[in-house]
TrEMBL record:
Subcellular location(s) per record: Membrane
InterPro entries the UniProt entry points to: Rhomboid-like_sf
Bilayer topology term: Multi-pass membrane protein
Residue intervals passing through the bilayer: 53-75, 87-111, 117-139
Keyword Cell wall biogenesis/degradation carried by entry: no
Main location (coarse class): membrane
Protein's name according to its UniProt entry: Peptidase S54 rhomboid domain-containing protein
Sequence ranges of Basic and acidic residues compositional bias: 218-231
Regions annotated as coiled coil: none
Superkingdom as given in the UniProt entry: Eukaryota
């Protein structure tokens, strides 16, 4: 049975909520101008390097918010496939790389090659969306194929599509929303996502956020073992008293009782 909504996808739910809420908050507080930036003047003239840390925090366009939220909703299947811990670790790795790569690529390579024409970095986590989309493209199989054909008197042509084809329409709109900057950010996100999958990012594919529940589970397992050993020792002690006295009772101790004595510090 297919899971609906955000079942088993809590991180995806919070990500969608953050995308929508951050945009609303930026609109209410009139701070949208603090998120997008142009290489010149923000970076070259004003030295506002803090914009590297803010440009992915929210969208400044309601259309982009809609496309991004809907795309992240359909990509929640990645979290169900990986689990919360790997999914969250992936997001942190992607954010680390995409925070600096698109602006530096535009500032150091694309802008000089285009004589300053490409100068703008649009705000919003588009790179994160496309890094997730790369995982969706590689990991989720299609269910069926179909053809759209068009024929006339001279030729017959057909386009072959899959059940996943429509899933790329919304993110494509996101990539084309503020050309050329949005397309550059989307391409960098896609490449980072595939580099993560192919283990081209040093140490990133195997890194995981610390699992705090592991220590608690280990303590619970140890407590259960201790209680079981105490029960075995009590049972053995009762059997020894009723069946024998003196040295005979000592010889009837179970292995569990002996191990428990070691924990208690007895010999």
């Amino acid at each position: 049975m297919m899971s609906s909504g955000f079942t088993n996808a809590s991180a995806s739910k919070y990500l969608v909520v953050a995308v929508v809420a951050s945009s609303i908050l930026a609109s209410v507080t009139d701070t949208k101008h603090l998120f997008w930036f142009a290489i010149r003047p923000h970076l070259i003239d004003y030295r506002q390097f803090w914009r590297f840390l803010t440009w992915q925090l929210c969208y400044t366009n309601s259309t982009e918010v809609l496309f991004s939220a809907l795309t992240l909703y359909q990509l929640r299947v990645i979290e169900r496939l990986w689990g919360w811990r790997k999914f969250t670790s992936f997001l942190l790795v992607v954010v680390t790389y995409t925070t600096f790569l698109p602006p530096l690529l535009v500032a150091l390579i694309i802008r000089p090659l285009t004589w300053g024409y490409v100068n703008y970095i649009p705000a919003g986590p588009t790179a994160i969306v496309f890094a997730l989309l790369a995982q969706y493209h590689a990991a989720i199989p299609y269910e069926y194929k179909y053809r759209i054909s068009a024929s006339d008197t001279t030729r017959n042509s057909a386009i072959e599509l899959t059940s996943k084809s429509t899933s790329y329409l919304l993110p494509m709109q996101l990539a084309l929303s503020q050309l050329p900057g949005s397309a550059i950010v989307a391409a960098v996100g896609w490449l980072v996502g595939y580099a993560y999958r192919l283990d081209f990012l040093p140490g990133a594919a195997n890194w995981r956020i610390p699992d705090r529940s592991a220590g608690r589970k280990e303590r619970e397992r140890y407590d259960g073992l201790r209680r079981r050993m105490e029960g075995e020792a009590a049972t053995a002690s009762g059997s020894g008293i009723s069946g024998a006295t003196g040295e005979g009772a000592g010889r009837r101790r179970t292995i569990g009782g002996q191990i428990l004595d070691q924990f208690r510090g007895t010999v």
